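Subject: Protein record for review, amino acid sequence with backbone structure tokens
How to read it: Take the token row as a discrete description of the fold.
Enclosed: The protein record, placed directly beneath this head.
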Amino acid sequence: MLAKRVGQLPDGEGWLFEPKWDGFRAIVFRDGDEIFLQSRDGKPLGRYFPELLVTLKAQLPPRVVLDGEIVIAERDRLEFEALQMRLHPAASRVKMLAEQMPSSMVFFDLLCDGDRDWRGEPFAARRAALEAMLRDVRPPLHLTPATGDPALAADWFRRFEGAGLDGVMAKPVGGTYESNKRTMLKVKHERECDCVVAGFRWHKEGPGTAVGSLLLGLYDDAGALQHVGVCASFTAQKRRELVELLAPYRENALEAHPWRAWAELDAEDGPAQRRPGAGSRWNNGKDLSWEPLRTELVAEVAYEQMQGNRFRHLAHFRRWRPDKPPRDCTYAQLEVVPPHELAAIFATGR
């Protein structure tokens, strides 16, 4: 079951609210000694989280299907990058990471228990049955918090982001479990900031004729331009217009470019210029070559949250800022969310 994004909590009664966990969505199938951990797109995840398979087998009922999120918590926040590191082909590497930073699983829906299919039942009934089923589970298994109080949900929305959570989910109490339908709502943060446009990537269907994405940078306290993410939300017409708009800034762009060392390093391996560490764990065949621009353009973009010193998701282009000096595009303009103690959310294993 999927969710539709909205900008604020829904009004009226008939909703249950939950924190939106920032992890890997997964369905757990258990049938006796068999445990199958499946990603949202149907791929097996068990080999990447062997420590979870052990505890799922030890604590879950003998025949059950549950919906939840795989997360990794370190100190006072969730660490999505640690999850991404698990997607590694070497079993020895996965085993080492599982020992160093073990994963947890947070459950939020019940699909099947024994021979009973719960998907046609209202969410309030599924939630009550899930609470009863997981009453005695211990970490690293958890039942997500839930409330029908919009005021408490709004408080979660403000506070929990500091722990790495991703917003708030709103679910209709009478709703059934409808696969591939966006019947839930996800309320997420959106903020704006001004970034230096330091490069771009060609669109996959129009190299040389259409721009795919803009590479964004912010200056750190030491005055170094750090790559913080990309924005790619353009119409086909805008992608073509960007080719002409960016053309003057491509001239002699590499001469004094702050990322020149990256480009020269990668040029030794071939014509493609690729930022180190930018490899895609989700699509090994994805072309991540980029074209440098003189660091003179400033764009205002919308973003949801930071993950370390980078945007967690794609940013969205808002407008050009010809009035903004590039050197004013620093991390200081970003809203800092104080961390919320994750143990308060995972209190007593709940």
